[in-house]
Amino acid sequence: MTRLSVNINKFATLRNARGGNNPDLLQVAIDAQAFGADGITVHPRPDERHIRYADVRSLRPLVHTEFNIEGNCRESKFVDLVLETKPEQVTLVPDATGQLTSDHGWDTITHLDYLKKMVREFHQAGIRVSLFIDPVADLIKAAQETGTDRIELYTEAYAREYALGKKEAAITPYLKAAELANSIGLGINAGHDLDRQNLLYLHQHIPYLDEVSIGHALICDALYLGLENTIQLYQRQLAGSTASK
Fold first, then answer.
1. Is 216 among the catalytic positions?
2. Which sequence spans correspond to the domains of the chain?
3. I need a labelling partner for 241 at 20 to 30 A (CA). Which of 3, 16, 60, 131 fits?
């Protein structure tokens, strides 16, 4: 079963726009889980423009499904936060300082020794590790050498090609990446620009998919459809038939 982790960053963006505590991020996390989310994802950044470090600490005892913290492990403050709160999963993303949104995966070949060190550090704290990565065979092979548990396939290219009607071209590199990752013992997550239009096709054609993390599109849908209904609609996409394993 592919799990749906709801990224609640944009709720924090809305809260921060006016100050105060509306919407209440903690209640959002409680409700999202009650409405059927299999996990909660947050991505704190150094400027705290959406999720704040204090939010992560407050959310930790409230997440009873799976807590996934995404972020740049080259920021010592991020590493300290993860080690303090001990989420079920940390997803390491190679963001530059001030980056608007994640736009590339790790060069696991160039940064192999560094990533080995970071994976080891999080494993020693009992935290599962996933590396944000492009669907490139050599990068996936190097990811396996780091000792990571999973990779998260960066799906912006898939979403872009899918929107242009090039479904087969969109899915082919991701299918090959998933098959390779599975063959060398890596779990597979996916995220970025996934939505109600392209999620079902991805899920139907990529076997071995453990988890998808979706925030922006899901929250945009929730503005019109309501959060509970939207989470259920996304779960229906994941309940569709999948490729045989």
1. no
2. 3-238
3. 131
Cis amide leading into 61 (omega within 30): no
Per-residue pLDDT reduced to its tens digit, 128-162: 999 999 999 999 999 999 999 999 999 999 999 99
Query: What is the pTM (predicted TM-score) of this model?
Result: 0.94
- Of the residues 43, 50, 111, 205, which is catalytic? 43
43 is catalytic: yes
Q: Which of the following is catalytic: 70, 152, 161, 211?
A: 70
Q: Judge contact between 178 and 188, C-beta under 8 A.
A: yes
d(CA 46, CA 23): 22
Instruction: Find the angle CA(95)-CA(218)-CA(52) to the nearest 5 degrees.
Output: 45
Inter-CA distances, 19 with 12, 22, 241, Å:
10, 8, 43
**Which pLDDT score, from 0 to 100, does residue 101 have?**
54
| Residue spans of the chain under pLDDT 70 | 96-103, 241-245
